[in-house]
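Worked example 3. Consider a protein that binds zinc ion.
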Amino acid sequence: MEALKRGDSIPELPEVETISRSLQINLGARITKIDIKCAGVIRRRDFEPEEICGSTISSINRKGKFLNFIFENGLELIIHMGMSGRFYMVHEDEEILAPHVHVIIHLDNKKGLVYQDARRFGGLWLIRDSRGFFSRLGREPLSDEFTAEYLARKVKKRRQAIKALLLNQSIVCGIGNIYADEALFEAAIRPDRPAGSLSASEIGCLCKAIKEVMQNSIQKRGTTFRDFRDGYNKSGGFQDYLKVYGKTDQDCSRCGGIIKRKKIGGRSTHFCDKCQK
Ligand SMILES: [Zn+2]
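Given these inputs, the predicted complex is written out as structure tokens:
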């Protein structure tokens, strides 16, 4: 498999959703200690880390590519895995030998939550109220609010390539390089088409393809090339189902054409130039 290119961020929505779901068993657990080995990964501190010690986890959600912990006392912890980060559970007795472990959050349920990130593009935010933080995120692709009508409004008169537009987190959040390529393949739309040139029926297909690709990947617990692990530190399975991403020079599964790779908006893009129009 072709190596993951710089700028390709995993986890995207399905991977963060997979982590979020696997962490739900910690609802109701209380933080006993927070061990920060690298202060640089704390991107914002509305309060000191010690202040969440004693806090009980009341919810764990995903917003775009962010993981959002809310505690019973209203304090919040936001985590972004960047390009290569992992956030997973260990048993409290387990010795952590992995490199690049920057934060360990100890819980009273005999578990520790480990934040590990070799490349440090991610981080943690200690926040009192996340509404402002998340207000610039666009619509969630799996929500009922993400519709063909919404997408039609956003692409209207845009000359930007549709691929680049899909990566704009303020329009639709959680899509990265892998799922943009896969969704455009499913919808049979060339990624370099000016967004504004898409017909109403193409926009309808694309909206549906985005939702399906995301849901299918969540069912397979996300895509792992090298780095992604779920909340149990286990690999995902969707890499076996990708149709174009990382498939340069291989046969197209739909038409037998050859998968091409091209830079679009600075990002490596994979598509079939025979059946994607
Ligand atoms: Zn094809």
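Take a moment to read the result before moving on. The chain has two domains: 13-134, 148-272. The mean pLDDT is 94.
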